[in-house]
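User: Could you go from structure to sequence for me? I need the amino acid at each position, not a summary. Structure tokens:
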């Protein structure tokens, strides 16, 4: 395996004195230079979280060799850890139903280079967005779904992820509820954009719920997908002010931009290994 230029280490472990010192000492002893580092202690859970970016240009080591060198420290602290090549781009499969605003924004950001991921394809339970996806010269997979074919259709999605080497499934307004088995298979690597400021207005029609409630703020939430609908660990949220004059249609229009921004930001942070799971919550070491 070839030498790596820059590495990202992220981990969590039970908190105790000396973790940062020992991690830093190990990499210093190997001649690595720390470029960026962020830490957080969840005092209530007594859990420590850290993300560090290291310059590896002075070492002619492969990623596996660096991981092997780090293993003793990871074991000493019983870490949940990932050590990755910072230049490796996350491979993603995108799922969409009929609303296309998040997909448009994702594909445009990918094409412009502001979203450094590799899109291996787009799947949909409708055929209506094929032309958009193929305009971007990306594979489009129409996978119809019904209550009887749900599990088989999900196996097709998993097979497409496997075939393309996709490490992440992005639900860019994919309006089908994933089965418990699918959620277990994709734990921590399936991201959904929910079109409300959770925990408010769960379900398929949040803008109508917001209109009926008469809220003055609406928003969007990007979260990891779990079997509990709209309950997954939140990665990013944003809101916009609205008023009594806004119809449900206007709320939906205002929400579209928020959804697109929140999903792109959440996917970028996930792809940059900035998001760590903390039980049913997340720690996000954003820039
Ligand atoms: N296991 C999970 N699957 C999905 C989640 C999730 O949190 N856990 N989020 C949804 C997206 N979503 C809200 O953000 C959502 C999508 C669909 C529905 C819903 O009630 N769908 C109906 C069918 C609707 C239709 O066909 O248009 C259903 O599946 O019976 C609620 C919320 C993505 N999947």
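Assistant: Here is the amino acid at each position, in order:
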């Amino acid at each position: 395996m070839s030498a790596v230029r820059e590495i990202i280490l992220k981990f969590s472990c039970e908190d105790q004195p000396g973790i940062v010192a020992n991690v830093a000492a190990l990499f210093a002893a190997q001649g690595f230079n720390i470029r960026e580092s962020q830490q957080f202690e969840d005092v209530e859970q007594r859990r420590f979280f850290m993300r560090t970016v290291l310059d590896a240009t002075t070492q002619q080591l492969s990623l596996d060799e660096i991981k092997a060198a780090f293993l003793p420290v990871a074991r000493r602290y019983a870490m949940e850890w990932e050590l990755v090549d910072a230049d490796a781009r996350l491979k993603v499969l995108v799922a969409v139903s009929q609303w296309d605003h998040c997909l448009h924004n994702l594909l445009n950001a990918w094409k412009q280079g502001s979203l450094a991921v590799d899109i291996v394809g787009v799947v949909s339970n409708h055929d209506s967005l094929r032309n958009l996806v193929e305009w971007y010269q990306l594979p489009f997979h129409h996978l119809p779904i019904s209550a009887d074919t749900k599990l088989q259709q999900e196996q097709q999605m998993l097979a497409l992820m496997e075939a393309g080497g996709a490490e992440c499934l992005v639900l860019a307004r994919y309006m089908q509820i994933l089965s418990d088995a699918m959620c277990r298979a994709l734990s921590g690597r399936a991201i959904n954009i929910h079109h409300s400021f959770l925990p408010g207005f769960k379900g398929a029609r949040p803008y109508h719920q917001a209109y009926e409630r008469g809220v003055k703020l609406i928003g969007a939430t990007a979260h990891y997908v779990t079997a509990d609908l709209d309950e997954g660990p939140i990665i990013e949220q944003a809101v916009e002010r609205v008023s009594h004059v806004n119809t449900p249609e206007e709320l939906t229009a205002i929400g579209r931009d928020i959804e697109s921004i929140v999903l792109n930001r959440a996917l970028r942070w996930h792809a940059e290994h900035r998001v760590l799971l903390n039980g049913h919550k997340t720690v996000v070491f954003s820039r």
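One structural detail worth keeping in mind: The two ends are 30 Å apart (CA to CA).
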